[in-house]
Specification:
This protein has 309 residues and is of the alpha+beta class. The chain contains 11 helices and 6 strands. Among the domains are: 43 residues, N-terminal domain of TfIIb (Single Sheet), CATH 2.20.25.10; 86 residues, Orthogonal Bundle (Cyclin A, domain 1); 86 residues, Cyclin A, domain 1 (Orthogonal Bundle). The protein is flat.
Length: 309
């Protein structure tokens, strides 16, 4: 990464280009070079870099860069672990007595990290978050946000008396809502041992504890998700998006379940474009009932002034 030095100070010294006498100097920290911004001449090739001394291509490389900072680790990736190697700093083998002592110290260090009940709860919760996220296929960004939410509610004492799995699922659902990823509570209830009712109650309580302001669910993303599940064509999908924009401009979908509205709009768009799909398939893809789709279609039918589907 290159950065410009305005007063032309490099390592505490005033530098000017000997070729064009320009004082616009750039330091390339990745290559360790000092360059002239005007003519590109290399003025110095011995600038200290802040990169690792070697790159890590595998588990056997001795890279000293360490693990990246992450909220998914109980210690945020900043802990120091005692190596299992039986060699000293010079690479020489240590005696059996010293190896036994180091093994004992390593065991005590591991126990000390989990001695606190809060750390144990955090470790279990983060592990549960990774399991649920792996089943749902969410991104690493959403998982990091869910870890931040879980740490915050854990600090407030929210997990006391509540199942860790329910709290982790509620935190991950809140992260999906916060980053506008179309996931429903039914999706979380289907892969966990928590009922939809209990999960919804835990989610509402979680929002009140951390005072998190979440955006409204994007109906367009719900339409795209349902359309991809049932295999809709591009023409029908574009027609459905047009109908959604008309319905949103009139406020006709305010307060309605977005997945049910998306399924109803796709059903109408498919009928208009000649791509007939059964309401049963749409209901299964959206996680709603066929009655919900028919009710939404009846409401949208009156708004769009359609005589029949």
């Amino acid at each position: 990464m290159a950065s410009e030095v305005k007063p032309s100070l490099v390592l505490g010294q005033t530098v000017a280009c000997p070729v064009c006498t320009s004082t616009s100097i750039i330091i390339d920290t990745s290559a360790g070079e000092v360059l002239c911004k005007m003519c590109g001449a290399v003025l110095n090739e011995s600038v200290p870099t802040f990169t690792p001394e070697w790159r890590n291509f595998g588990d056997n490389d001795n890279s000293r860069a360490g693990l990246p900072y992450t909220l998914l680790s109980c210690d945020k990736g900043l802990s120091t672990t005692i190596s299992t190697s039986c060699k000293d700093a010079n690479g020489k083998a240590i005696s059996a007595e010293e190896a036994e002592l180091i093994n004992r110290i390593r065991l005590l260090d591991k126990r000390a990290n989990l001695q606190n009940s809060t750390n144990r709860s955090l470790q279990k919760g983060l592990r549960e978050l990774e399991k649920i996220a792996d089943k749902l296929g969410v991104s690493k960004t959403i998982l990091e946000q869910a870890a931040w939410i879980y740490r915050k509610v854990l600090k407030e004492g929210f997990t006391r008396g509540r199942p860790i799995q329910a709290t982790a699922a509620a935190a991950l659902y809140a992260a999906c809502r916060d980053l506008e990823t179309p996931r429903t509570i039914k999706d979380f209830a289907a892969i966990t041992n928590v009922s939809k009712k209990d999960l919804a109650r835990c989610y509402r309580k979680l929002l009140s504890v951390i005072d998190l302001q979440l955006p409204i669910v994007d109906l367009m993303k719900c339409v795209s998700r349902v359309a991809a599940s049932v295999g809709f064509g591009e023409r029908a999908k574009r027609r459905a998006i047009e109908l959604v924009k008309l319905a949103q401009s009139s406020g006709n979908v305010t307060g309605k379940d977005p997945m049910g509205t998306a399924a109803a709009v796709l059903y109408i768009a498919g009928t208009l474009e000649g791509e007939r799909v059964r309401q049963k398939d749409l209901a299964k893809a959206a996680g709603v009932t066929e009655v919900t789709i028919r009710n939404r279609c009846r409401t949208l039918k009156g708004f769009l002034k359609m005589n029949s589907l």
